[in-house]
């Protein structure tokens, strides 16, 4: 019997030893969208500042919001909500005002992306990246030319084949645009119309994925559906057959921002992290690895010509004009949510 | 005196723990299911039947409940169909072999279930091992679309839950008095008759225990459906998880779990009833 | 019949082991997507070790598993002894509650505890997680110890008492040593249950105390990642070691049993 007890005791000791160094290092808790920040950047941050990054991910604004609501203290230090969640969380007192003095690199940001309605004067938020949601096509399976708009996803031949983002606003964007409404509609009638249209789409949907939509495309599980431009860009690097299409009804354009929640505990490190992320070379790496556009102007000249002119990463003027930027829909979000629940449950 | 003190301490520790972390939370859950959703907090007054009305009258949710029951039932039947012969064959082996078989069964069972679900996913993918083998063998011409279907979820649940069926069955069959089987054979009963009239009736407690052990937890395994299933919400567990950690409708999530608790209670009561019947019949004969 | 049985067992074990086998092979596969064998590598293991978040979560998981297993085994042991030695009002109700707790799907325990923690203002982190893990391990430890107690020779206790042992000595010198194998196996069972738990943890912990299964879940949700294969391989090895330990001690117990 004694032998076993010895094994257990030494096991306990080993565990106790590994547990000890946990208290030593400076840390910053980052909660971000999946596949949205290159690991090399995190390592570089730790090397430069000595602050360890504890990194967790979420797959939708709602999940992030629900998680933050549960946390009273010792929470995440930096989070990346989309515009409409920035205003909502700001209004509900879930965010801390940013300290500009600790964010000198802010001077390099594109003024066109600052001081927007969702956060006047950038009290709580600073834009991280912006991008679009369009259509992903595997050209080996489906001719790219045959897909021009959101409407094409409704074709009966794609029964049980599509991938959609697991995100209420993005999915409703398609239907609202097809109907010719604004994708920021707050009119219950218009939202209901969109819901009815989406209900017809459900038989075509194979899965919802907004963790990393490119992987089902790369694995050959799907060859058509929604995708973020950055994910499409990353997919294209590995399999050139996967293409990104800006739908003619208009792509969904969005901005994600850094915020510091009220429940954060390493506020100084959070500022250091955000400031680091706005450095030109760091922003450049983010663009090249993740394929989304950056508001850091000084990063643009550093970019490889091929990336800078890549339409998937940086849409041209017409593509932006055709699309629509996501804004806060206020109370109407609850209506969207209700229909969304029905779609997810009942299809 | 000393005995009394130890006794009180032990009993109050255990019952206090169960009360605080077992009974009280369930009662709070029950209460929460009758409250109203709160957009910024978690739930608020007034008490209302909104959540239950939603569950039963909105077609979507009821569909999820029924689908979940169906999926769990299919999984249970598959586990029973495979687990029963497995347990029977194992019991009939020599002692040494029995031990080896059981250990082989237990090793995956001790391995992280998430990791195993993930492993199943790698097998079932369009470019996974199964499709590759079938293609190479010429059984199929185009890869099967297995991943993100209900079949994949059932295969995954079966994979995780099989030991929970086999172990109670094994424990039961091990105690079975084999002389009864021999007696039946001596009396000229055929194999099927022995199985139907002797073995199955004697192993009913094991069958019931195994079915409950598989059926009830299956409906809560949201991560299996999340990793293997497609766009449709499949299990009650997914609905609950969605309501608590995404949609933030706590009353609806609570009501859904109350339904699950009721289902479990009915099954446990049924089990108790069957056991009592069996016991009283045993006494009479 | 014989061959049929052979194929049956082979089929089941193939089904149980092939997925795990693929996982392990791919942990050493140079090919990122594991679609074909590109050569042997250990880089996924080093990649995993270089991930501070993953390492922190591993540490947290081990601490929680050790604490939960130890406390649950202690409480479960006392409870089992209490149930077998004392008669008291409400004993059957208590046992019924324990059984129901064991049968209840994890998700019920998870959200009911979440509602409790939110209502009384416990912040989600180490303590909420530990309390939850002890709670779901408790019925298992108690059952294991109870089963062992039932196999006891009651005369042993009477003999000890006749020789003048106090209640405390009785527990410390006679009952606990006899229970050692049961305590060990219930400790190991709780340890694995805690380390394996996704459902309860995903509801009752916060960012300050992220645990391994949650990290794995968010990684595998994304897709095939070789670092996950490496991690999974390590976990399979860990569980193998645990099974071997528990088997070793079973053997030892048998030997002891024969000697007695």
TrEMBL record, chain A:
Show the InterPro entries listed in the entry: SBP, Sperm_putr-bd
Identify the Gene3D superfamilies for this entry.
Periplasmic binding protein-like II (3.40.190.10)
Q: Name one Pfam family in it.
A: SBP_bac_8
List the GO molecular function terms.
Answer: polyamine binding
Q: Where in the cell is the protein located? A: Periplasm
Q: Per its UniProt record, what SUPFAM superfamilies does this chain match?
A: Periplasmic binding protein-like II
Q: Where does spermidine bind?
A: 35, 84, 167-170, 326
Task: Supply the alphabetized keyword list.
Answer: Periplasm, Signal, Transport
Give the main location: periplasm
- Give a GO cellular-component term: periplasmic space
Q: Cite a single GO BP annotation.
A: polyamine transport
The residues forming the signal peptide are: 1-24
Name of the protein in question: Spermidine/putrescine transport system substrate-binding protein
**What is the species listed in this Swiss-Prot or TrEMBL entry?**
Desulfopila aestuarii DSM 18488
Automatic annotation (TrEMBL), chain B:
**Any keyword DNA-binding?**
no
Keywords for the protein's UniProt record, in alphabetical order: Cell membrane, Membrane, Transmembrane, Transmembrane helix, Transport
Per the UniProt record, which residue ranges are transmembrane? 12-35, 64-87, 99-120, 152-173, 194-215, 252-274
The entry's cellular-component GO terms read:
plasma membrane
Q: What is its main location?
A: membrane
**Protein source organism:** Desulfopila aestuarii DSM 18488
Has the keyword Cell membrane been applied to this entry?
A: yes
Family to which this protein belongs: Belongs to the binding-protein-dependent transport system permease family. CysTW subfamily.
A Gene Ontology annotation in the biological process aspect, one of them, is:
transmembrane transport
The compartments listed are: Cell membrane
Stored PROSITE patterns: ABC_TM1 (PS50928)
Write down the SUPFAM superfamilies for this protein, in alphabetical order.
Answer: MetI-like (SSF161098)
Start and end residues of each ABC transmembrane type-1 domain: 65-271
Please report the record's description of how this protein sits within the membrane.
Multi-pass membrane protein
Q: What is this protein called?
A: Spermidine/putrescine transport system permease protein
Pfam short name (any one)? BPD_transp_1
InterPro entries found in the cross-reference section = MetI-like (IPR000515), MetI-like_sf (IPR035906)
From TrEMBL, chain C:
What kind of membrane protein is this, topologically? Multi-pass membrane protein
| Transmembrane intervals | 7-28, 62-86, 98-120, 228-250
**Compartments where located:** Cell inner membrane; Cell membrane
> What CDD domains does this protein's entry cite?
TM_PBP2
Q: Which PROSITE patterns match?
A: ABC_TM1
Q: Which UniProt keywords apply?
A: Cell inner membrane, Cell membrane, Membrane, Transmembrane, Transmembrane helix, Transport
What range(s) does the ABC transmembrane type-1 domain occupy? 58-246
One GO cellular component term noted in the UniProt record for this chain: plasma membrane
Q: Does the keyword RNA-binding apply?
A: no
Task: Kindly indicate whether the keyword Transport belongs to this entry.
Answer: yes
One GO BP annotation is: transmembrane transport
Please tell me where this protein is predominantly located. membrane
Give one Pfam family.
BPD_transp_1
The Swiss-Prot or TrEMBL record describes its family as follows: Belongs to the binding-protein-dependent transport system permease family. CysTW subfamily.
- The protein's role, per its UniProt record: Required for the activity of the bacterial periplasmic transport system of putrescine and spermidine.
Q: Would you tell me the protein name for this molecule?
A: Spermidine/putrescine transport system permease protein PotC
